[in-house]
Design brief:
With about 120 residues, this protein is of the alpha+beta class. It has 1 helix and 4 strands; from the N terminus they run H-E-E-E-E.
């Protein structure tokens, strides 16, 4: 009588391969979830910077030199922004830098996102 089926060693090797594949899939899924959260944070920070820049242009078409800070909620998150208005070589043009930080970020932390815009006198 001829026996058919797998030996115990073959079954154990197959289970080990499946276990390794599942661990790799779970690690990839966790990495994708972290990346999606980071992209969401970057997108919201970009919107905050764009809003600060637009509000600056609407309130002060030719903004005063200097720095301002503020806070803004975008979606479920709170952000802190820092705006710097500087002169440019062209006297009728000013550079506006907006840096966005997490609300709880330390002063020494790097910004999540930065945006540069220009405002000019007509």
């Amino acid at each position: 009588m001829k026996r058919r089926g797998f030996s115990l060693v073959e079954v154990l090797v197959a289970l080990a391969v499946v276990a390794i594949a599942l661990v790799a899939l779970l690690a990839a899924a966790a990495r994708m979830a972290r990346d999606a959260d980071r992209l969401r944070e970057l997108t919201l920070a970009d919107w905050v910077a764009a809003n600060v820049l637009v509000e600056t242009r609407l309130r002060e078409p030719f903004p005063e030199l200097g720095e301002r800070e503020g806070r803004m909620r975008m979606g479920p998150r709170e952000f802190r922004w820092h705006r710097v208005v500087q002169n440019t070589p062209e006297p009728a043009l000013r550079r506006v830098d907006v840096h966005v930080y997490a609300a709880d970020a330390a002063e020494s932390d790097a910004p999540i996102h930065s945006l540069v815009g220009f405002a000019g006198r007509r």
